[in-house]
Amino acid sequence: MAARRNNSPVALPFSDGPVEPDGTIQPDGTIQPDGTIQLGGPVPPGGPVETSPQCSAKGCRAAAVWQLRWNNPKLHEPDRRKTWLACDEHRVSLGNFLDLRGFLREVTPFGTASDAPIS
């Protein structure tokens, strides 16, 4: 990291805040002594926050109800499956997106995070 003449904070394109003189980037992470960036900041009191699986549709944070299993035959072996999760509202639109490209293989109910390797 280059030294700054006046030690003033510097805004970085990947950060929502400035780099502090001690190397801390707020709120996204910390610059380590070796120059790498540790993202995520400190673990909140009480440990990491658990989140439930969410719909894969852009901007949707609804709980996952469906798993759409797919593969791209130009890139993946025939038995390889990738998984998108969907809420009830986005099951059809995500399925149509994959089906129009010939990628959709199956749609099944989603029960728990262990039901599908999300990729």
From TrEMBL:
Organism (species): Paractinoplanes deccanensis
The segment annotated Disordered runs over 1-55
Q: Mind giving the lineage of the organism this protein is from?
A: Bacteria, Bacillati, Actinomycetota, Actinomycetes, Micromonosporales
Task: Give the protein's recorded name.
Answer: Acetone carboxylase
Q: Which domain of life is it from?
A: Bacteria
